[in-house]
Design brief:
This protein is α/β, with parallel strands linked by helices. It has three domains: about 20-85; about 115-170, no CATH class; about 175-365, von Willebrand factor, type A domain (Rossmann fold, 3-Layer(aba) Sandwich). The chain is about 35% helix and about 20% strand. It has nine helices and 15 strands. The strands form four sheets. Strands 8-7-6-9-12-13-14-15 form an eight-stranded mixed sheet, with helices on both faces. A hairpin with a 2-residue loop joins strand 10 (about 280) and strand 11 (about 285). Helix 4 (about 85-100) crosses helix 6. The longest helix has 18 residues, at about 195-210.
Length: about 375
């Protein structure tokens, strides 16, 4: 347990049953152990000995069996080791969503509203006469039959094109999002664990998109010396590597991913400590961990400008409070005309929202 301090376990305010109380702790430990079930359970046994988490009626053995029975972990048939299931991964993401953004009700069908009408799946109060090219499923049958009765009478009933009435529907746009996560070594330097809150924000964003906007597309990548794609299920167990921060490579890959998406609305979410330190040159790397290297910064800002020309806003989640790092994020955000959130390590639910599009500041909770 080197590098982690544990205090007395405080039960949830709502009480909860024995399994739920232990499950909340288990899911938190799973993130610190990067998905190692055996290590997380070992930590729980040690915490149980110190803080008496269990009772004579419900012990750790009962909890482990319930984890299996309820589908939170499974045995690997090859070697018998315990592994997390997709249910565990989804539950961790949901907890992160509630922790970061608060409880959010699932939307109707998860689409983004717009002020335009067109083919959609939610009717509004507007109606109009049928015109050539309208979809048949937009015809209001009740109103059309009523028009036919009024125009032609009940005894001589017939339905003509002039009787058809169209029920307008709200057009709902789809968005393609790329989520970028910094896994460079600086995310754990100076005694600060920045990767854990970064993972929580990432999981919250992923769950928000999947639950409220299921018709959207979501691609995820991580960046260190290089950048590469990952899957949503990998988010809870991301690890920091011995990497510098090649933000340029991350943005380059993000734009490449979005070029393959057909949606007109595209955006990038970037979670970082705000300090690019690396570029790839040929078969090697140009690196400078001290300060803000202008060569690295200029290349990175060029990518921000390129994204703006493609009408792709970048929202930066900065998991750091250093003023000179914030200065870079401000310049980056201004050039891209995007948005930036600054989060302390203690309160992920509180951000200072910097919106260069509207040129104002406000607190977001």
């Amino acid at each position: 347990m080197r590098g982690h301090l544990f205090s007395k376990f405080i039960p949830r305010p709502d009480g909860g049953d024995d399994f739920q109380r232990l499950l909340d702790l288990f899911l938190q430990l799973m993130q610190y152990t990067n998905g190692d079930v055996a290590e997380a359970l070992d930590w729980m046994n040690q915490l149980d000995n110190q803080h008496k988490l269990t009772t004579d009626a419900y012990g750790m053995g009962n909890f482990i069996q319930d984890l299996k029975d309820k589908g939170y972990m499974q045995e690997n048939p090859a070697d018998g080791s315990l592994e997390p299931t997709s249910k565990t991964n989804q539950t961790i993401r949901k907890q992160s969503l509630e922790e970061v953004f608060g409880k959010i009700k699932k939307g109707n069908k998860g689409n983004h509203r717009s002020n335009k009408t067109g083919q959609g799946d939610e009717s509004n109060s507007d109606s109009r006469k049928f015109s050539f090219g309208d979809s048949i499923d937009q015809i209001n049958i009740t109103a059309s039959l009523h028009n036919a009765q009024v125009n032609h009478g009940i005894e001589n009933f017939r339905l003509t094109e002039e009787d058809l009435e169209i029920q307008e529907k709200d057009f709902k746009a789809q968005t393609s999002t790329v989520l970028m996560i910094d896994i460079s070594h600086s995310m754990i330097l100076y005694g600060e664990d920045r990767i854990t809150p970064a993972k929580k924000v990432a999981m919250a964003l992923a769950e928000l998109i999947k639950t409220r906007y299921p018709k959207d597309t979501l691609d995820i990548l991580v960046f260190g010396n290089d950048a590469w794609p990952i899957e949503v299920k990998d988010l809870p167990y991301l690890q920091v590597g011995p990497y510098h921060t090649n933000t340029y490579a991350g943005l380059e890959l993000a734009l490449e991913m979005l070029r393959k998406r057909k949606n007109a609305n595209k955006q990038i979410f970037m979670i970082t400590d705000g300090k690019p330190t690396c570029l790839k040159e040929g078969n090697g790397y140009y690196q400078n961990s001290f300060g803000l290297d202008r060569k690295v910064i200029n290349k990175t800002l060029t990518m921000a400008a390129q994204a703006r020309r493609l009408n792709i806003p970048i929202t930066t989640f900065m998991i750091a409070s250093d003023p000179y790092l914030q200065q870079f994020v401000q310049e980056f955000t201004r050039i891209n005309n995007g948005k930036a959130y600054y989060s302390s390590l203690k309160g992920l639910g509180e951000f200072i929202f910097e919106d260069f599009e509207k040129n104002r500041r406000k607190n977001v909770r």
